[in-house]
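Quick one: examine this chain and its backbone structure tokens and tell me how the chain folds. Here goes:
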Amino acid sequence: MERVSVDVCVVTYNSGRTFPQLVASVEAYMPQGTRILVRDNSPKPGLLDDLERRVSSGVEIHVVGQGDNVGFGRACNELASASDRPWILFLNPDAELLTPLPSTVGADPLCMIGPLVESPSGQTEATFGPDRSMWFELKQRVLRTRVRLDPDRPIDFVSGACFAISRERFLGLGGFDDRYFMYYEDIDLGRRWRGRGGQILIERGWRVRHIGGASANAAPLTALVRSYQSACRYHQRWHVVPQTFKAICVVEAALKLTLALIAGRVGKVDRNTQWGLFKYVIASPWNRVLADD
């Protein structure tokens, strides 16, 4: 089978520490002639100029845009529009390929294909799974039920951290909905993709390592608020019950705040950040949490 022509699309945000490993992995595991297209959302200008001086690679790196932080979805759409290859691979700047691209990429334009993504410790991450129903949100956020990862079962979405897709089909669907600044845009895309007859597959033999949380760790409260806003938008769009989702989030925020006040933090989130999120969730309106703009 002839190798498919692919552009690797990367949205960077203060990614100087991790980007060189990504480039090295693309050179090692992607077909010869693969290019890296970059949209830099970093607030500090000149980051990519510095990276180009530091990265020694035979891979072509093209900067599609830089400057204002336009959000993940809109930046990805810009990259897809700038590409002229039949397939594109979205890859987070804090991720690196561990195996070659599977032969299924390029075989069927109706298939969106994701890898098994592992953490630096080797644990498989929950980067794919079922749609985010209200019952699913309740189990995850309040009941703390663990997601069963089974790539052989029907997949409703795959994380924007890494997936390959037909560029024509992606753009034909309108790309990511850029009203999601970050988070839930991939779940929304999966729902629309399946609605148009598309299929989503996870390739067990395709593996990617993801550091994860590099941008979120720099501004944890902003990341948590963005996630809440995007989740509200998603449920308002598809389930028309934003009040129910907010009630779930209020309970979750209250429980986590209580634990944070006792222990000083919940996971990686300290008590001050958790308090800030609790106040934000409580203060946001109950009816039509986010209006469609």
